[in-house]
Amino acid sequence: MRMSNPSAEQMVRQDVAIALGLAIDMAALRGTGTDDQPLGIANTPGINNVILGDNGGLADFDTFTDMEYELSVDNALRGKLGFVFHPAIRRRLKKLKIAQFSGDLSGEYILAPFSDAQLEAYLGYRFGMTTQVPVNLVKGTATNCTELFFANWAELLIGQWAGFQILASDQAGTAFAANQTWIRIIADVDIGLRHTESFCLCSDAKIA
């Protein structure tokens, strides 16, 4: 940055913002509640769950309808509702096909081309994607499971204290010898669910 034009600083700022956002995504969705991690949705007791099978199962539109149902029976189907899942799930949903006749093994796409807007229309709600959700969870004999989240996201509370602590050093570790400047950013963040009934998790959806 010392020998670059000012646009390089903006790139670094953007990289830092993305890294912090991904870290908060991970904490909010899957934080363990130990080792200074917040307790994320997936590990919070009392949330709704949809289970696909002893060895996981392939998610389809019925899966998302079942997740919606779990909130509706708890009178929690309100607010900023939406799904969150790994991009592999979007790919799978877009490739879903319908057999055109008995014995048809290839079928035709439900809608082709299947846009994100059409997918949201089928799901009935908006969706977001993140690679912070793993695709190698184990359920029985399945080793390619991932997590699906459905929630009133207005009920997800993210608390932050004292802003960001930003420190730079050209002497820490090997920075001096390498003629580098290291930047450390600390953000004190915690996660809370206002009502656990407003959240539903499917943790055994196979990606293929």
Biggest sheet architecture: 7 strands, mixed
Percent of sequence in beta strands: 25-35%
Q: How many DSSP helices?
A: 4
**Inertia-based shape:** globular
The CATH superfamily label reads hypothetical protein PF0899 domain
How many β strands by DSSP? 11
List the topology elements.
Blueprint: H1 6-30, E1 48-49, E2 57-58, H2 61-72, E3 81-85, H3 87-94, E4 97-98, E5 108-109, H4 116-123, E6 126-129, E7 137-139, E8 142-152, E9 156-169, E10 182-193, E11 199-206
Parallel strand pairs: 1-11, 2-11, 3-6
Antiparallel strand pairs: 3-8, 4-5, 7-8, 8-11, 9-10
Can you characterise this structure?
The chain has helices at 6-30, 61-72, 87-94, 116-123; strands spanning 48-49, 57-58, 81-85, 97-98, 108-109, 126-129, 137-139, 142-152, 156-169, 182-193, 199-206. It has a single domain, classed as hypothetical protein PF0899 fold, CATH 3.30.2320.10. It starts with 5 loop residues before the first helix and ends with a strand. It is an alpha/beta fold and 208 residues long. 25% of the residues lie in helices and 31% in strands. The strands form three sheets. Strands 1, 2, 3, 6, 7, 8 and 11 form a seven-stranded mixed sheet that branches. The longest helix has 25 residues, at 6-30. It is built from four helices and eleven strands; from the N terminus they run H-E-E-H-E-H-E-E-H-E-E-E-E-E-E.
TL;DR of this structure?
The chain is an alpha/beta fold and 208 residues long.
List keywords for this structure.
single chain, 208 residues, alpha/beta, hypothetical protein PF0899 fold, seven-stranded mixed sheet, 11 strands, globular
